[in-house]
Write a structure and sequence with these properties.
The chain has 403 residues and is an alpha/beta fold. The chain has nine helices and 31 strands. Strands 5-4-1-6-11-8-12 form a seven-stranded mixed sheet, with helices on both faces. α7 packs across α8. The longest helix has 13 residues.
């Protein structure tokens, strides 16, 4: 008999991540590598176990194979449990047929039986593509104390950014009276983080009603939250303070990776032994630095072999930088090889990229910031070839003919 759980987390990890372009052609966005040792999904999974939430449903859909294999039994996050633990929940066929997840709310609706199996009082709904550390138990305690039907985590953002986000307008007691999606003239700067704590019985009722509405987009922000407000339900905000980044674009992913090189509040502290970020890491030897190599202000992970120059960059495991090669202000994902005398600047190289000798990728212009060049997984950039700043490459680049 399954033990009753006070709170179950449902992690929405099925997004295509189209704004990451060639980085998510063959992989779901939550499985994108981040920060030298991690993948995006490591952060919400680690937050769950650190917050005492030991039952997590991961709702997958787009290109799920690598993400499913990465999660596995949940052992790296201490979520390999007989009672609870982590469960991968793709769309599936039922007796009357089946369908893809039509929206965030529909994804939870299709898994009502999973949630009911644990008979929780509360359900935490999370995204799988944000970088942050958060104690969800504090949010749950506030939710219970205030008697809210839904508590929405919010972040105070600069007013110039508010028009690009979902904004919560609140009363003095923290209750929400209005939700505005990307308002031209925002009334507040409290942006929704896409993290919701619901009282399950109420949420279940709204999910069933939403599914019956043929005009609904089956979305939390677009349908469930507005419907709760319209019906006078008690919605509260939970104010989050700390490092949080949405890494849904190439620029934001590049910036968040390089934030790892910063000390203080402008970065996430991964050395906090009281709140570890767990990950599934391959067994690799210590990184090796050659006699003529130079590494400055960079993260270099195990298994790397560095013989060239690395500056202000993040190297994931098993990367090779050959003699004379230069890597600056760049993100180099697992298994990439950068050949002799190649130059990589302001770029993201996905897994197992091969950069042949003398190639130039994303070089800076006059030393200023430029658009980020991106090379898709497994692509070979030929000898002496050039990939311009901001260019997205998903097929092999031929070598330049030698004279």
């Amino acid at each position: 008999m399954t033990a009753k759980k006070e709170c179950v987390a449902m992690l929405l990890a099925g997004g295509q991540g189209s704004r990451l372009y060639v980085l998510t052609t063959d992989v779901a966005k939550p499985a994108v590598p981040f920060g030298g040792k991690y993948r995006l999904i490591d952060f919400p999974l680690s937050n769950c176990i650190n917050s005492g939430i030991e039952t997590v449903g991961v709702l997958t859909q787009y290109q799920p194979h690598e993400l499913n294999a990465y999660i596995g039994s949940g052992q790296p996050w201490d979520l390999d449990r007989l009672d609870g633990g982590v469960h991968v929940l793709p769309p599936y066929l039922r007796g009357k047929g089946g369908e893809w997840y039509k929206g965030t709310a529909n994804a939870i609706y299709q898994n009502i039986s999973f949630v009911d199996h644990y008979d929780p009082e509360y359900v935490l709904v999370l995204g799988g593509d944000h970088i942050y550390k958060m104690d969800y138990s504090k949010m749950l305690n506030q939710h219970k104390k205030t008697g809210a039907v839904c508590t929405i985590a919010v972040l105070d953002v600069p007013v110039e950014e508010a028009s690009r986000m979902g904004i919560m307008n609140i009363n003095d007691d923290g209750t929400v009276y209005e939700f505005e999606e990307k308002p031209k003239n925002p009334k507040s700067t409290l942006a929704s983080m896409g993290i919701y704590m619901f009282s399950w019985k109420k949420l279940k009722k709204y999910l069933v009603e939403d599914e019956k509405d043929s005009k609904s987009k089956n979305d939390f922000g677009g349908n469930i939250i507005p419907n709760m407000l319209k019906n006078g339900e008690r919605l509260m905000v939970y104010r989050f303070e700390g490092y949080w980044r949405d890494v849904g674009t190439i620029q934001s992913l590049w910036e968040a990776n390089l934030d790892m090189l910063i000390d203080g509040d402008d970065s996430i502290n991964l050395h906090d032994s009281k709140w570890r970020i767990y990950a599934r890491n391959p067994t690799a030897p210590p990184h090796f630095v050659g006699a003529n190599a130079s590494i400055n202000h960079s993260l270099v992970t195990e298994g790397c072999n560095v013989y060239g120059n690395v500056e202000n960059s993040v190297l994931f495991h098993s990367v090779t930088v050959e003699e004379g090669a230069q890597v600056k202000h760049s993100i180099v994902m697992p298994g990439a090889i950068i050949g002799r005398d190649a130059v990589i600047e302001y770029a993201i190289l996905a897994e197992n990229v091969r950069v042949q000798p003398g190639a130039k990728i994303g070089t800076a212009q006059s030393g200023k910031m430029t658009d980020i060049a991106v090379i898709a997984a497994g692509v070979t950039v030929g000898t002496e070839s050039v990939v311009a700043a901001g260019e997205m490459v998903d097929t092999d680049v031929p070598e330049v003919n030698q004279k």
